[in-house]
Give the backbone structure.
Amino acid sequence: MRVVLAVNRVTPDPHRNLGEILDTIDEAARRNVDLILFPEAAVTGLINNDDPTHDLPLGQEIPGTITDQLALHSRSGGIWTAIGLLERDRNELYDAAVLIAPDGEVKLKYRRIQPQWHGRNADSLIYRQGAEIAKVDTPLGALAFLICGDLFDDEIIERVRDLQPDWILFPFARCFDDGSYDQERWDREELAEYLRHVRLIGVTTLMTNYLAERDLLGGAFGGALVVAGDGTIQASLPLGKRGLLTVTL
């Protein structure tokens, strides 16, 4: 299986961001890749601020206009596309991810279970969490999603381990408070915890984070990793770099 982990740049313009994402799917297809993974909230960035008048318009219906466009490019390129999106379901907002097959069908939708993508005082009738962890069998193997903070919840880890997928798709969004792309700090302070939690699950995990400037609600420092089930890094893309990590697994 050939996969691409995309580190896209997120700007305040979602239309521009989506255009880059669609172009990146096309580029991955030209590389004869089987699957491409984008980060959490890849079209808008994780810029919700707990004000529904600001946040609900960030959400996308699934299926909807954006997934239709993603499906069109997946079909054209014959590629599996996995991406994190803020999902709007009537007046509810979820931190979600979808897997779109080469025929354009949404094969798996996942809603983040761990709630720290929004503030503690956010309206619980609007800011919602998922409850289900599922896998989907594909020609590439059995795939399952986790999103960002899900990786650090012991109960979620146990549930996904019991599910026994072949691969975990892990879109995430992470920044430092100072907005820096500090690789040394990441390696020193945080990387080991990500690796340890993958090791607890025991399944190869594909991780990617978007790149954004600090003025986009703190920004995000990018980076992508393929981590084996024993917690060793098989491939990586450094922080602060927009690009594609292409790996054969």
Notes: Residues 14-30 form the longest helix (17 residues). The chain has a mean pLDDT of 97. DSSP finds six helices and 14 strands in the chain. The radius of gyration is 16 Å.
